[in-house]
Structure formats: structure tokens, C-alpha cells
Design brief:
- The strands form three sheets. The protein has a five-stranded antiparallel sheet, with no helix packed on it.
- The protein is 0% helix and 37% strand.
- It has 174 residues and is mainly β.
- 25% of the residues are buried.
- It has no helices and twelve strands.
């Protein structure tokens, strides 16, 4: 019976850092939540960290209901800086930049309130977010350009398309 079982591959280092390579320009800064008897505090963004040089120009929060997906979206003029505050999100990224060393690379990254993080998604990288938890998921976005209501820098593809080689699952896993 054990001969039919498939052995897991390493997914994290002994320090807990993921072993899979990231799409060129994608950065993740794992956050630390500091608890005390009053509650918690968790830093979202500090220019001193050096994870992204662009100043803060616009900030908004968004929510995704359980099992729902937002995406696919790509920007041509801005980078996204997303911070997961509450819930559990699956980030799926696809590098469609023809001049990128990671062209056509796919990343799947899970970020949750138990392991909060700031993720930098460069322009030209398609991204979709799926709430894989049982409660609403909330994130903050600090894009490098303010939203232009008259001319949004937002291009969309359907969830199921011929460009991105990824199909979302129901999350039941194994």
C-alpha cells in the first residue's frame, strides 16, 4: 500500500521560507503580528524596508467572500502592493511580460492572517485572488499610481481563459 503513495517534495526551508522561485519582480515581505494583553499590531508598509521604492500615493481596502475569486487582472502602468489583513487568500500570478526572465512562469502563494504579508506584484503580471478560507478575506492595496476613474489601468481576462495555464480548484485539497 505505501508503495503507491507519493512522497511530498520540500516546499519550505527549515526557517519556513518557500523554496519555489518567484516571478521576476514579485516580492513578499512576511509580517510579524505583535500581540499583547490589549490586542495586536502589525505593520503593513514601511519605506525603510526597501521592498519597493515607489512612494505611497493611493490606498484602499477590499474584501473577498469565501470561495470567491477576484481576477484575472493586469496593469500596464502600476505595480500592486497588497497586504492581507484578515482571512486566507490564494494568490495566483502569471508572468506575461515577453522580456521577463520568468516569462510564462506561474506562482501560487497562500497568505493568511496567521502569516500576514505584503506582496509586490509588478505591472505586466496577471493576478487573481481566491478566498480559500471560511470567513471574508480583507486586503489592503497600495498601488504605485492612484486610481484613474476616467481611464483605469486595469485589464481583465475571464477566470477560465486560453492564456493562463491555471484552473482554480474548490480548495478541498488532499
Amino acid at each position: 500500500m505505501i508503495a503507491a503513495a507519493k512522497k511530498d517534495n520540500q516546499t519550505v526551508t527549515t526557517e519556513g521560507k518557500p523554496t519555489k522561485p518567484l516571478i521576476d519582480g514579485v516580492r513578499i515581505r512576511w509580517a510579524t503580528t505583535h500581540p499583547d494583553d490589549r490586542g495586536t499590531v502589525c505593520e503593513i508598509f514601511n519605506p525603510a524596508w526597501g521592498v519597493h521604492e515607489a512612494p505611497l500615493v493611493y490606498v484602499y481596502t477590499a474584501m473577498i467572500r469565501p470561495n470567491k475569486i477576484k481576477g484575472w487582472v493586469v496593469h500596464r502602468e502600476q505595480d500592486d502592493r497588497l497586504f492581507v489583513s484578515q482571512g486566507t487568500l490564494r494568490f495566483v500570478l502569471y508572468d506575461d511580460r515577453g522580456d521577463s526572465p520568468t516569462h510564462k512562469m506561474l506562482n501560487e502563494i497562500f497568505i493568511a492572517e496567521q502569516n500576514r504579508a505584503l506582496i509586490i506584484i509588478p505591472r505586466g503580471v496577471y493576478h487573481a485572488l481566491q478566498n480559500v478560507g471560511r470567513t471574508d478575506a480583507v486586503f489592503v492595496n497600495m498601488p504605485t499610481k492612484a486610481y484613474n476613474h476616467a481611464n483605469p489601468d486595469k485589464y481583465r481576462l475571464p477566470i477560465h481563459n486560453d492564456l493562463i495555464p491555471y484552473r482554480f480548484e474548490d480548495g478541498s485539497g488532499g
